[in-house]
Amino acid sequence: MSTDALPKAEPRESRGLAGQAAALAAGEVTARELTERALARIAATQPTLNAFRRVREEAALAEADSADRQLARGGRLPLLGVPVAVKDDVDVAGEPTAFGCPGDFPPKDADSECVRRLRAAGAVVVGKTNSPELGQWPFTEGPAFGDTRNPWSRDHTPGGSSGGSAAAVAAGLVAAALGSDGAGSIRIPAAWTHLVGIKPQRGRISTWPEPEAFKGITVFGPLARTVEDAALLLDVASGSAEGDLHRPAPVQVLPEAGRDPGRLRVALSVRPPWTATRKSLDPEVRAAVTGMAERLAELGHEVEEAEPAYGPVGLAFVPRATAGIREWSLRAPDFSLLDARTRGAARSGKLLGGAALRAARAAEAPLQRRVGKIFRRFDVVLAPTTATPPPRIGDLAHLSGWQTDRTMIAHCPYAWPWNVLGWPGVNVPAGFTGTGLPVGAQLLGPAGSEPLLVRLAAQLEADRRWFEHRPPEDAAGPAGL
């Protein structure tokens, strides 16, 4: 089915992931209707927001028809017939996985394990969302696909590297999407598009056919407008494959979205870990995060300023990140077509992929013990997700590798340590700047703490009701979207 044949874009779907699943089960709507609406909204916004690298029109409609037949026979699955999107760093059978890179990538023969699990739950995969090259940057721009724009302001980035997934959810193209987080790549775009984004425990969602992603720093996770929807997608996608290197004990987080977190000890942390670069916390971001801390205290929690002892955590990050870039870059059809910054990072990864990488991995357990000391006194750490509101499209596009790294750290110095540690973190919307740009806050916990973080995020959501705020229609695309 061509995009020309798609129906005219309809108003944004008011129901979230769970609501759509319930409406399908009740016979209030068909999977084909929901999928046609999603495809129409994608087609109408692609020239403006550019959220998708691949749109699966015919395949998605066929999957929707199959779901409708199952529903008619009384079949019930958690997401049977619900349209979702996935980031273009996971495999979808019949589609290439380019991960933001230029070149002619071959179609994949099989789904990644997390996509297989989505399909097993009945989800309809409408497409693959844009990412910067190999997920390196907190902006989603590149010559392979153009600029992905923020539904709250098309002059600004939705963040990265899961910027396409964030833009698609924030604009109401789908109710939820999978992203990946190697240095904040779920939490950063969630912060900058007013979404809930969960970076789960390493291994919570399988990375197979990769035994681990980017030397263990990258995980897959959900972006959604509500905690319930994010928790539902997380539960559906979670689970291990036989070849996974990281296989934590399973947890269920969806039931936690309705439970009282009790009185928690919350550490307010606004000092980022040390890096050899300049950075400062924007006053509006600081005000939003401290305002959330004050509200947590009013809700009955014990809130105190305290800082994790991050120590030399950055030294354990760079070898793993660059070695992962090096490994993935070798799959590109033409290495010379990659961004000069990608080629430079790949060269660094080759240099650091031996002794430095082994030392970085060996440092993980001592760093977990060092940083983990804060959880002897506190249950949760509350921190900014980013140091600034979203930058403008193109602000980082033409910088050198070193300039990009410095600017990127200045915008986003808070998220990446939790990737080294492998622990969970949840971005929650923290408010807006005076010009209407979203900003976020992180709830951070120790190993296996997703249930606790979801309980606290759900309490904040019930109090703040951030899901009631949507991007203006003229910013997201043509009127009526």
> Beta fraction of the residues?
5-15%
The percent of residues in helical segments reads 25-40%
Radius of gyration equals: 21 Å
Question: From N to C, what is the helix and strand string?
Answer: HHEHEHEEEHEHEEHEHEHHHHEHHEEHH
Mean pLDDT: 95
Q: Give me the side-by-side strand order of the main sheet.
A: 6-8-7-12-13-11-9-10
Number of helices: 16
- Backbone structural class: alpha+beta
Report the strand count.
Answer: 13
The first-to-last residue Cα distance is 21 Å
Main sheet makeup: 8 strands, mixed
Outline, from the CA principal axes?
A: globular
Instruction: Detail the poorly predicted runs.
Output: 1-7
Walk me through what this model shows.
The protein is an alpha+beta fold and 481 residues long. The chain has helices spanning 17-25, 31-45, 57-72, 113-120, 163-170, 187-193, 227-237, 283-298, 313-329, 340-352, 355-362, 364-372, 401-411, 417-421, 450-464, 473-476; strands at 52-55, 83-87, 124-129, 141-142, 146-147, 176-181, 196-199, 219-224, 265-268, 302-305, 380-384, 425-432, 438-444. The protein has an 8-stranded mixed beta sheet with strand order 6-8-7-12-13-11-9-10, with helices on both faces. A 3-stranded mixed beta sheet has the order 1-3-2. α2 runs antiparallel to α3 and α9 crosses α10. It comes from Streptomyces daqingensis. Residues 33-453 form the Amidase domain. Belongs to the amidase family.
